[in-house]
Write a structure and sequence with these properties.
This protein has 135 residues and is an alpha+beta fold. The protein has a single domain (24-132), classed as Quinohemoprotein amine dehydrogenase alpha subunit, domain 2 (Lipocalin), CATH 2.40.128.120. Helix content is 16%, strand content 54%. It is built from two helices and nine strands; from the N terminus they run H-E-H-E-E-E-E-E-E-E-E. It has an eight-stranded antiparallel barrel with strand order 2-3-4-5-6-7-8-9. It is globular and about 65 Å long.
């Protein structure tokens, strides 16, 4: 009985380590150089996963760049922004004129950096997961 309990504990511990996420790091001005560059990933919607690209051109506020949303059938839409800001430790990018808002948290690991959060576009709110493209 003790062996079974020990085995269950070991399996749960290993499973927990395998699924552990890189911790969320509140974004500060010190992280701006890490945000600069190209990001790629997916947004998860009702129609499945759709590719999303983000490029941040500068490393000072306000952040400037472009976001590209890939649609069904291979179409894409790109939108410039020039008002990226840090708010409550999160990256906020907003384009009121087209109904676009990104609200992203930063995850830093040993060899990876990610942005995760929500994207609202024309009334649709979905999760987005982006990885930094290695330079």
């Amino acid at each position: 009985m003790k062996k079974i309990c020990l085995l269950v504990i070991v399996i749960l511990l290993l499973g927990g380590l395998a699924t552990a996420k890189t911790p969320v790091t509140p974004i500060t001005n010190n992280d701006l150089p890490d945000l600069k560059g190209e990001w790629t990933g997916d947004r998860l919607g009702k129609m499945g996963n759709l590719r999303t690209d983000l490029t941040i051109y500068n490393d000072m506020l306000p952040l400037r760049g472009v976001i590209t949303l890939y649609m069904l059938k291979g179409n894409s839409k790109s939108f410039d922004f020039n008002n990226g800001r840090i708010e409550d430790g999160r990256l906020i990018i907003y384009r009121e004129d087209i109904g676009l808002k990104l609200d992203l948290s930063l995850r830093k690991g040993d060899d990876q950096i990610k942005l995760e959060g929500d994207i609202v576009f024309q009334g649709y709110d979905v999760s987005v997961f982006l990885k930094k493209v290695k330079e």
